[in-house]
Amino acid sequence: MKRRLGLISSSLLFTSVLLGAGSAVLAQSAPEVLKVEPPNWWAGHSINPVRVLIRGRNLTGGRLEARGDGIKASSISVNQAGTYAFVDLVIDRLAAPGPRPLVITTSNGNAVAQFEISNPLPRNGRFQGFTPDDVMYLIMPDRFSNGDTSNDDPSTSRGLFDRAKSRFYHGGDLQGIMDHLDYLKSLGVTAIWLTPVYANVDHLNYREQYGGGPITDYHGYGAVDFYSVDEHLGTMSKLRELVDRAHQAGIKVIQDQVANHTGPYHSWVTDPPTPTWYNGTEADHLACDWQTWTLIDPNASYQIQKRVLEGWFVNTLPDLNQNDPETARYLIQNTLWWLGMMGFDAIREDTVPYVPRAFWSAWTRAIKREYPSVNVLGEVFDGNPALVSFFQGGRSGFDGIDTGIDTLFDYPLYFQIRSAFAQGRSLREVARILASDWLYPNPAELVTFLGGHDVARFMSEKGADIAGLELAQTLMMTARGTPVLYYGDEIAMTGGGDPDNRRDFPGGFPGDARDAFSRNGRNATEEGVFEHVQKLAGLRAELVPLRRGKQIDLYVSDQQYAYARVSGSQSVVIVINNDLVPAAFEFGVGPALIKNGATLCDQLGIARDVKVGGASAHVEIPARSAAIYIVK
Ligand SMILES: [Ca+2]
Ligand SMILES: [Ca+2]
Ligand SMILES: [Ca+2]
After folding, report:
1. Any domain includes 578
2. Among 58, 96, 154, 465, whose CB has the most other CB atoms within 10 angstroms?
3. Is the pTM of this model over 0.85?
4. Residue 167 C-alpha to ligand 2 middle, in angstroms?
């Protein structure tokens, strides 16, 4: 602590010396504007004034005037280096859309920052939020489909494209996703989540090296510009087109956002807008120690938690300091800007535990104030329901904070799905993890999954086979929550840990030997899995209880699990046999409100009809199979 304070004061000294030396030079130099963030805003917005960050040169002593009707600038503050100006713009409710140049004047001249009042997007059919009625699908745009080869190796960022290298750009883009909305629709997908589309660095990333070589930030999680789309993926207008086309097709779009860190090459790293914009500096920062459990420890002091909250991810990703009010405000406005520009329906938020909970609370309140239906899906990558549930909104934690985060990925269930259906371990553990549902303010809205871009593919798990994959999919699509499918799992794609789990979708790229987006391009195994997922999505759409029903456990043993989903007077009974041999067993169906004499009919066509007698169902399920019964 002492050492750190010493370093801070010496760096301040260094800054003021520099300023002193620089001011003689600056005295002759006119101001310059390099970037305006946000570059536009809306009249009648819940955030008013909007705080604009202008990056430039020679801004010291600058005054600012906003030109045009219905806008007024106030509270300008310039950093010591004269490289950033913060200014509040008050926008009149009735201000007409159009340009509003911001003129910065110093004793050496003036410069114009382009700013605009924009027309808001019509709300109908946008900003919808997702619910358990949806089936989500995760796409890593670079790896799904290349719909525009002209952006494969863009002139501004040459040399990052190489399909033979697993950590280079492969050419997939927004156009490629647009070209396959029909495919997604035919599978039964109603919402897509894209990994981040922010501009990432235009050269090789030497800060992260694997096998002795630099990589690229094709994955999108290393933003160097929070106000633009990476040129490999497309443009702002292409993204708008994709969102609009998806909406027309009845598919919602969920944006992946990152508020914890920037990429290592963000210009802020060498020239931060405020001295406390980041937690520490490139030369002097803490490394994240991943001890997220300390966050739910009521006995922990801040010094125990500090490395989690302030440490730099993998020691290379500059950690944004949300306790700096300017940083917090920048991030909140950026979120609202993307929503307003694109009409996204929801946000998937990265690395939730590593950011102070008080920030999430303010951030979610700002989102809901403007877009009440937009919801937030948080990533808390942990198998412990006590930790994950601590971050779900709807109640205050022991720290007095309600994060307001609507839903979280059900990582605890994910680990047990893998354990039971890939590794063949006890299915009882799946039921046991669902027994922790009481910890969540709203377990019915958790997001369930069996794979994603941060873990090895299901099919590459030791012991995995197609039967296990299909059982996992059956559970995910019939148990409580909103399911998210990982691209390619519907055709049983394989792949080990990152980046092998992000292989190109076959048929998405020029010269591919086959096109697995079409039936003719899928082999029999792939087609079988595809049809299974399609069938499950269809049943989910058709049967309200599978989406909205209360989850009621009916039978749990080592390798068998039966549960009902009950909604009003409608019941669906799901019976899973994870064993290598057929199973015959009996359980009461009274808790599922099913009466004597009823006939249960399996919608997957695996098991025979069951006549309910003595308030019980006697079921016979083949080895490694499942049945989804409805009352005939
Ligand atoms: Ca491309
Ligand atoms: Ca780039
Ligand atoms: Ca952090």
Report:
1. yes
2. 58
3. yes
4. 14
